[in-house]
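Loading example: each entry is read as two labelled lines plus one structure line.
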Amino acid sequence: MMASSYNAKEEDGHHSGTSSHGAAGAVKSKKPDNTAFKQQRLPAWQPILTAGTVLPAFFVIGLIFIPIGIGLFVSSNNIKEFQIDYTGVDISSPCYSCAKNFSWNSTTPCVCSVPFTLNQSFESNVFMYYGLSNFYQNHRRYVKSRDDSQLNGDRSALTNPSKECEPYRTSDGLPIAPCGAIANSLFNDTLELYHIDSNGTSNPIPLAKKGIAWWTDKHVKFRNPGGNNNLSVAFHGTNKPVNWRNPVYELDPSDPENNGFINEDFIVWMRTAALAHLPQALSHHPEEAQHDPHPTQWQILVDHHLQLPCAQL
Amino acid sequence: MYNICFTSMPILAYSLLEQHICIEVLLDNATLYREIAKNAVLRWGTFLYWTVLGVFHGLLFFFGVRFLFSNPALQDNGQVFGNWSYGTIVFTVLVFTVTLKLALDTRHWTWINHFVIWGSLAFYVFFSFFWGGIIWPFLRQQRLYFVFANMLSSVSAWLVIILLILLSLLPEILLVVFRKPRGPHARQKKMVQSSVGGHQSPRSSARPLLMRTFSDESNTVI
């Protein structure tokens, strides 16, 4: 069968060759080249699974991964979490008065304190997070409403923000820095942690506010226009976002490395969360939070600023 | 981008080079062609299987990562992931699953198959690093800056990626292991005969890995 097909092809080639012999020289034969690729004879490997290969491989992989799994499970069980809700919806909650009577453009802060008890000791590197529930930071129009080149310190984008920031692009005729709905809804409650010892005195716990944002965010993606000094001059000609109390260069006047666009709380907020319940990093305490295993009293002092006007969102 | 750069070459190489049954067996048993007569491979059953499998994969990727993100503080230093990291994890699992599924289906591994399959995966990783590695000068939005590299620095993300890839390929693996060969499968009989006889066709270019079979209905791959 193979031999006869070869012959037929050869005759074809011959035939066309002789017919156009006088015209333009030899015509290319239609026979495919006798290379390994075109004749589908490439050297290949076929996997054939038999019990002799599959079962030993299965058991070896199992033996490798089961101890890893046990180790991960044990270490994850050692992580301790504690959540406090300070929304103040309930009348008996300490923050009820702040939640009810406060409006977002009040100048006097409303302070409420929430006591809580820890029954077990939290080992070192305690992280504190704040969380908002039912806050959909992944709404498409909200996520698009920012200008990354303005946040990168680009001068032209500072005075002419992107169209995506509408309607938070200009206010009173001046461009807004930082523009957009994400920046406008910045979380600005301040929380302080106190430890109440047996005498009843509250000792404030120092919380490190650095190191909560991604390193690349703080040092590459977010830059102040014109350097970190003289920010009020650099931001001249722009306005603060509509729902902010202070302009962006007063986010942390005591530390020039944490002021303006490179403020870590601001950077953390601008990294929009994936789901409706969003915990964001607030601070971290590098030492042990509690030395003895007995239950101890703690207290959080909340400086209520955040009140989002729900009708606009 | 996905269709052109990440997943087009493997399927092209598969369609050109795949030989489920090698040439010599086919030439000797022409009746094997009856199995694909009347467009049998594109029947409703096969189509529905692939569609349901696609839906299952999609749901598994998205909700698997959503379950992981119930606490988004996934990095070792307590920093939080955002929604771009979420999407990047889903997309990584997707690209790897699709390519590895094709690798599972490939029975005839030539050097071209190796090159395009592993090359596509390597290209995806390289491209993700490249795309997220610089601040693009003329773009207003820098959403994916460093997102991929940051995702890879978290152990939880690695574990979830590996777990989701294995879970999504599990139906295929189970099907291969447990499916009983139907009808007179000449290829299987040929394998048994040649293992008994020990005679290898001189024109054979495929080298089977292990010829030892335990029974007629052994779990040789169809």
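Strands of chain B lie at 206-208.
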